[in-house]
Write a structure and sequence with these properties.
The chain has two domains: 20-57; 62-157, tRNA(Met) cytidine acetyltransferase, tail domain (Four Helix Bundle (Hemerythrin (Met), subunit A)). It is mainly alpha-helical and 158 residues long. The model has no long low-confidence stretch (mean pLDDT 91). The chain is built from seven helices and no strands. It has helices at 22-46, 62-73, 82-91, 97-103, 109-116, 121-139, 141-157.
Length: 158
């Protein structure tokens, strides 16, 4: 599910999966569950209802940890990680002003940069990534370091 409306249609992008194997069926089921976990968060962000029965999930699961590590330690986009980032903010008591400002207050990047004294969007993204890394470390330092090392290893292969 996309997070920006397409200019030509005014609609959000979506991807459908049609499994043709057992592995494909497992993938489709897993992604459907992920969409259900993220449905309410995406609906609040986009202002559009998603036609699935949402799952009330506030705990961080393994997929969330992987997404959060991809955001904190690699190049995963912020809006692609909305669900896991929102669940992280629910669990974490740290201030995280760059992240909370964007996701909870829906403050624009420009206004956040002014508020936080940052020179631009790239610096804001660096601050948001740093905050997520700090939050992961605060929740489970050993797991965060293990995921960081795994992500950094993958970066050398691509």
């Amino acid at each position: 599910m996309g997070n920006h409306k397409e200019a030509s249609s005014g609609c959000y992008t979506a991807m459908a999966l049609l499994p043709i194997s057992e592995a494909g069926a497992r993938l489709a089921h897993r992604e459907h569950q992920r969409l259900r976990r993220d449905a309410e968060i995406l609906a609040r962000w986009n202002g559009e209802a998603i036609p699935v029965i949402p799952l009330k999930a506030s705990t961080l699961n393994d997929d969330d940890w992987d997404e959060l590590a991809g955001f904190a330690f690699a190049h995963r986009p912020l809006l692609t990680s909305l669900g896991s980032l929102s669940r992280l903010l629910e669990r974490c008591e740290l201030a995280l002003p760059a992240l909370r400002g964007r996701l909870e207050e829906k403050c624009s990047d420009a206004n956040l940069c002014i508020r936080l004294g940052l020179p631009g969007r790239k610096a804001l993204l660096v601050a948001q990534r740093r905050e997520v890394a700090h939050a992961l470390t605060a929740l489970d330092d050993e797991r965060a370091q293990r995921l960081r090392e795994r992500v950094l290893q993958w970066q050398f292969f691509h």
